[in-house]
Amino acid sequence: MVVFTFAPTFSAWKTKARLALQQELSPQDVFWKEESSIDTFPDLFLGEESSEKQPAASAKTFRVPREFLTLGDVVACHRDPSRWDLLYRLVWRINHGEPHLLDHTPDPDVHDLLLKERAVSRDVHKMRAFIRFREVATDDGMWHVAWFEPQHHIVARNAPFFVERFASIKWSILTPDACAHWDRKELRISPGTTRDQAPAADAAEELWKTYYRAFFNPARLKPSMMRKEMSPYYWNNLPEAMLIPTLLAEAAGRTATMVAASQAKRTPELVESTPIRLPTKGDWPALKEAAESCRACPLWKNATCTVFGEGPLHARVLVVGEQPGDQEDLAGRPFVGPAGQLFDRALQTAGVPRDHLYVTNAVKHFKWTPQGKRRLHQKPTSREIAACRPWLTAEIDHVKPKLLVCLGSTAVHSVVGNGIKVTQDRGQTLPTEFGIPALIPVHPSSLLRQPDRSREAADFAAFVADLAKIQDFLSK
Amino acid sequence: MDLSRKLAILADAAKYDASCASSGTTRRDSRDGKGLGSTTGSGICHSYTPDGRCVSLLKLLLTNYCIYDCLYCINRRSSNVPRARFTVDEVVRLTIDFYRRNYIEGLFLSSGIIRTPEYTMEQVIAVAKKLRTEHHFRGYIHLKTIPEASVDLIAEAGRWADRVSINIELPTSVDLERLAPQKNFSAIDGAMGRIRQRIDAAKDEAQFKAPPFAPAGQSTQMIVGATPATDADILSQASSLYQRHRLKRVYYSAFSPIPDASSHLPLVAPPLVREHRLYQADWLLRFYGFEQKELVDPQSPLLDLGVDPKLAWALKNRHLFPVDLNKAPRALLLRVPGLGVRMVDRLVTARRWQALRIQDLARLRVSIKKVGPFVETTDHNPRHYGLDDDNLRARFAPPPEQLSLFTDSAPEASVYSGEL
Q1: Prediction ipTM score
Q2: Which of A211, A229, A255 has its CB closest to that of B11?
Q3: Hey, which end of chain A has fewer CB within 10 Å, N or C?
């Protein structure tokens, strides 16, 4: 048996393999010994002819298909120590009567070669995918440093890819086998190191995790697919992988909540909503009458009656509230409950004559849930607001006011649009699609809900000040 | 609102776009030391989420405010989801920061329609332009284009992007009218046609150093399961798009429950198996020489959910089998269930030098259970594998599931995961 000692690279092996072929050494007679590897050679079988001979002067040349060189270059990076034996066996067979061996993929040696090629290529690809750089400030400026554990000896093979991609950044890739460094001029490969040399997480990593969490769609759980493509082997060094168990655990719950939420919302709606038919002709009483049998949303079911707007039909100011309350629902008239009374008081203080105003609500039915013996007010959804909006539009068209007053966020939503905060725009006048400006004071019922008694007077004064703007407008 | 919160909202809003491909573009690198990034032509998936989908691009909406009210969309005007808007600089910074850390291959930017389609498109383009011109970003950029935007804007989008796409959303114009009243089928189709002309022109003029236009082509997405459209409708729309507009990909997206869903949509688990079968059929049409009418026809307009479309076809056309592994032409081998394009090419090469035997297939890790009934070699008789058996389909289909007496729906687990 002849021992060939060589640096574990494909080109070094090629030189030695050429020697072995020239000496007509069959695969069983050759032992491939990597220079840097620990000596695993069984001394027991070591014959005296263990040293390689120099080639004869009339050395014969050998041919292999180009494909073998490409594949061999990849397979040489495989971690399996038997890869050199495999390569030599193939090159021997190619030169001993099987020139087309590589085409015969079912052959065990060729198959093994292709499997190994696949494994290395995949590892190369996954390294490109799963390297995670972290920023480190050094004397030499900002460095991007990554720790990675490849399955095969691919650092040197893969480093040029990172040079192409990150040529303008100084970076280091640290692995247990070898490290690659790029200082924007030169690529350097150094011996392997340990994980503690790698830097800790930086701030951008939190943003990345936020992105990963948001990207995940809990309704389409398919963890086996994830594990197939992102083997848990790599999870140690992926900052986002630590989120996986939580995301998996929460998924079923999140989907169930989504389904339940839309189920709760839809049951009555789809079946029972009938489109609004506005009377084509006729005046305000016809409109009011048509609204009484509105079924555009399911709120009519639990309400006593439709509470339509009221006031002078040529009022210059039209006030929009949220929706009728408990007492309005029973009386069938808007603004008669506690909030309405407070509104009246504030108007009086501000010196605005109530009988100059047309008052109505964004939603015309009382929405509530039972709590004990009381009917607890509930905020209408955007769908209910949208369903009711044609009535409000018709009222505005009839009355043709010069100023709209929106009390509370629901009214603002309906008249001005979504996304406007009453607390921010309070006291302002905003444009609307009706071409009529809208004034935005707070809703009187929010004053009623104010828990802090001491602030009551101040809040009321602020409300009055908002309403005084109506008077300014009227007297203009 | 801080950046992290915006990112959470606008990434969540963007995730219903299925495409995350970063492949098929021209080779670029940053060896000149000035720019950042590279593309090699083949895409890289930098991570995978537990839904099995790859994270290749930073997929974001510029904003999820939208003046449209498309029922299937989480960002429709009437939806109650939280809203946010990125500035151009914020998206640029996020892309660069993520790219430098090797989290992503590039950016996929889309947007809800704000103010006007023109204005929205300008904002989206501004991000891509800034990345390319100010930061010399050489990574991948995919821009969603808005069909109503002007020709000039679409031209500029293609100037900076590797791929542009317009979502056709639903397979028929009737469906689109019903669920997305503000969108217009012929406008979408027309815009795709104009993009195709631009792509073709840029390729023709490449030798004259003309500026590139979307070198990775265009793609689109169809939502599956939100309307009663059949697989035949979907596949014929897809084939038509591939042929007329030379699309690189048509993505099929199973409609999945979204927060605050519209009541006009089915409230069921996403039909993931159907989505999978559509992708398989799509592949058969593009790479295996199948014709649409061989997979679905007016009599049976739906794909078999139990077995894959190639196997379903083979079971219906058993008179064409068995196929002799050593003699059959490549086109016929491609029609054998269980043999993929790569495997067929290997077999065709291998049989030139040596007769193939059935153990050879086993060594190549081909499933003999699946291939067995349909192929023939000197040492293999397909009849022993049941080519002529009446119950052949049953061997491949998932076992029938007994319905419970007490619930009227399928088991809960599958409702949520959709996995078979």
Answers
A1: 0.88
A2: A211
A3: C
